[in-house]
Structures are given as C-alpha cells and as structure tokens.
Amino acid sequence: MEKAEFVDTYGREPEGLWFAPGRVNLIGEHTDYNDGFVLPFALPQRTVAAAALRDDDRVRVSSAQQPADPVCFRASTQPGDVPGWAAYAAGVVWALTARGHDVPGLDLLVDSDVPPGAGLSSSASLECAVAVALDDLLGLHLDPVELALIAQQAENDYVSVPCGVMDQMASMLGRRGHVLFLDARSLDVEHVPCPLEEAGLSLLVVDTRAPHRLVDGEYADRRRSCEQAAAALGIGSLRDSTLDQAQSLEDDRLRRRARHVISENARVLEVVGLLRQGRIAETGPQLTASHVSLRDEYEVSSPEQDVAVDTLLAAGALGARMTGAGFGGCVVALVEAGAADAITEQVMRAFAEKPFDHPVTFVTSPAPGAGRLR
Ligand code: GLA
Questions:
Q1: Which of 86, 208, 273, 277 has the highest CB neighbour number within 10 Å of its CB?
Q2: Where are the domains positioned within the chain?
Q3: Residue range 54-58: average pLDDT?
Q4: Mean pLDDT value across the chain
Q5: HEC string for the chain
Q6: Residues within a 6 A CB radius of ligand 1
Q7: Do domains 3-191 and 194-364 have the same CATH topology?
Q8: Does the structural domain 3-191 have CATH classification 3.30.230.10?
Q9: Closest residue (by CA) to atom 5 of ligand 1?
Q10: pLDDT-derived band of residue 215, with 50, 70 and 90 as boundaries?
C-alpha cells in the first residue's frame, strides 16, 4: 500500500505505515490454550495499516479488500458496537482503553495479502497491525508480548472468538529465518534458527481452500473437552499431565483429546531439540505424527487436508501436517527444495481427481514480525 491510497480515502496524509504478518504453525496445534508449547513462524504475507490520529474521538477504518465507505465508531467503543471485519480493529482500540490507555480518534486504512479464512491468521495480522500502529502513534512503547496480549484480548472479548495466544505472538515476534518456540504458559519465547536454504529444504504450504466448516463451535468444543479432561485429572491444565494419566480418563473422547495435547507438547519439544542441533530434515516424522494425532485423536482435520497430507507424503515430502485450527484451511510440508515443484504437481493432480476446489500452494520461509514500514 502507498500513502496515496490513504490520501485518496481520507483527504490527508497518514502519519506512517505499519505491518503485521500472518503465520504458519510448524507444530504444536491446539496446545496454546492448554498452557502448552507451539512453534509457529511469521509469513511474508502481511496486513499493512496506514493511520493518522484525529483531534476528536471518531475512528474511521477502511480496507482495500472491502471497498466501501469507511466504518465509523467512537474511540470509546464497546463490544457489540462494530460488526464484521472492522471489529478486529475496533477491538484493539477497545482493549487499549480497557487497559487504561487514552486512545483518541483516528483514520485507518488497511490492506492485506494474507488470505482470509485459510487458517493463516489474517485476523491476528489485522489486530497486530493496528496494535503496532497505535503503540507508535501514541508513543506507548509497549512490549511486543503486551501488544500480542492486547490483540488477543480484542479477539477474545470484543470479537468473541476464544482463540489462544499463538497467532498474535507469532505475528508480533516472528523473526526472519527463525521459528518461534513459545511456552504459552510463561509466554517465554526462543527464536530457533531454521536455515532451510542451507539445508536444501523448503516449507511448502498448501491452502486447500476448503472453507472452515463449523470451526467456531468445534474450536470452543475442543477447548471445553480439554478443560473437562484437566478437571477430571484434578489439574489446572493438560500441560501438567502425562500420557499414563490421560489413559486413566474414563470418557473415551476426553481420553483421546488429552492424548493429543500431551503427545503434541512432546513433539514440539522433540522438534525444537532437533532444530537446535541443525537437524531440520529429521523433524519430518514428528510433523506427520502431529497430523495423524490431529486427525484421529483430536478430530479436527478435513478430507481436503488429509488428501493433501497423504499426497505430499506419497510424493516424497519428509513430513506434512494440517496447520491452524483445522476443519479446512492449510497444510504445511517439509520437502527437499529441488522436489517442491514435482510434489506440488502431484497435489494438484490429486485434488483435480476429487470434488475439491483448486488448492493454492506456495513455498515459504520465516519472515519478520510486526513493525513500522515507513
Ligand atoms: C487458532 C487459534 C490459536 C490456536 C490454533 C490451534 O489458530 O487462534 O490460538 O489455538 O487455532 O493450534
């Protein structure tokens, strides 16, 4: 986005341009809201926000993806005031004021190349872009972790989506060439090097373009099951249980949900251990094991994601798994760099034989987290 687009929309110059990326989760799925471990990385695809403060309390937000009149609301907005995409921006204004910061009116224009509804955290990238813009414009100098929590609060309490903290942390704290090892309980982070190119490897993302069917209700349902399993085990969260303990759960469904979370945390630690030693190629089997567990134990995969994973593996991927909340969306695979094109071809062919949409694929690598563009 150029400043001229802001001038066209609002008839004045923006005070700056800020950005925040989408994310892919390499491994550690449905673990963040169980106080567990995740290993996402920021994508080159990002939301850019141009903004300028106003001297009244009106907020106007526009999106290059939704060309219409700006959505208007007061800086003193409350949950329920603003519907649709603009609620993610309004939620950040609300979360900042809820934490005692003085937010005046502003004009905001956003433009994003993070595909919406693909499980690549387009919403977190929008929230975080607004959060870094306001942090800078208001001279708040908040810690990136605090900004991630503000973005998560916007989504949880303003938009009413009960997400964990992974997406916002990845968008705020991503680093080029590194994956983000996050302990969702302590919020400690370690940037773990992931030199794909040096290792002759690529990360291939397949956006199956399968719509997120029932994702909201199912996500909340999985969270509830985890809470029930933890309560039945007499612990605060599944982070603190072992597979042996999970086996003692009487309810078969809760037992399987708990087994996924516990084994997934162990897989994240295993992958981090391998990456710290530069053994990237050896992480493949853990990625695939994660998919099997999400498919069979946690039951959040979709037919499209299963076909993508099976085809990727049959075509020679070192590991492949669904990424994000599930029920449609993306798959991530670790492949030999030289084989990426041939493997992509196989996926295209497999999808053409099914009653599925055409997938979109891209090779990616970890990009920087949110910041000022200019
Ligand atoms: C969504 C949520 C995250 C996380 C993943 C599943 O992306 O926003 O917090 O729970 O699902 O791992």
A1: 208
A2: 3-191, 194-364
A3: 98
A4: 97
A5: CCHHHHHHHHCCCCCEEEEEEEEEECCCCCCHHHCCEECEEEEEEEEEEEEEECCCCEEEEEECCCCCCCEEEECCCCCCCCCCCHHHHHHHHHHHHHCCCCCCCEEEEEEECCCCCCCCCHHHHHHHHHHHHHHHHCCCCCCHHHHHHHHHHHHHHHCCCCCCCHHHHHHHHCECCEEEEEECCCCCEEEEECCCCCCCEEEEEEECCCCCCCHHHHHHHHHHHHHHHHHHHCCCCHHHCCHHHHHCCCCHHHHHHHHHHHHHHHHHHHHHHHHHCCCHHHHHHHHHHHHHHHHHCCCCCCHHHHHHHHHHHHCCCCEEEEECCCCCCEEEEEEEHHHHHHHHHHHHHHHHCCCCCCCEEEEECCCCCCEECC
A6: 29-30, 32-33, 163-164, 166-167, 324-325
A7: no
A8: yes
A9: 325
A10: low
C-alpha 46 to ligand 1 mean position (Å): 18
Atom number, ligand 1, closest to the C-alpha of residue 25: 12
Compute the distance from residue 351 Cα to the ligand 1 centre, in Å: 26
167 given a catalytic annotation? yes
Q: 233-291, pLDDT tens digit by residue? A: 999 999 999 999 999 999 999 999 999 999 999 999 999 999 999 999 999 999 999 99
Tell which atom from ligand 1 comes closest to the C-alpha of 31.
Answer: 12
Q: pLDDT value at position 211?
A: 77
Q: Mean per-residue pLDDT for 119-141?
A: 98
Position 213 scores a pLDDT of 58
* Site to substitute for ligand 1 among 30, 182, 330, most atoms within 8 A of C-beta: 30
Question: Which CATH architecture group holds 194-364?
Answer: 2-Layer Sandwich (3.30)
Task: Read off the pLDDT band of 170 (50, 70, 90).
Answer: very high
CA 249–ligand 1 middle distance (angstroms)? 25
Distance between Cα 329 and ligand 1 center (Å): 12
Whether the per-residue pLDDT at 176 is higher than 70: the answer is: yes
For residue 93, the model assigns a pLDDT of 98
Which member of 107, 167, 207, 251 is catalytic? 167
Which atom of ligand 1 is the closest one to the Cα of 325?
A: 11
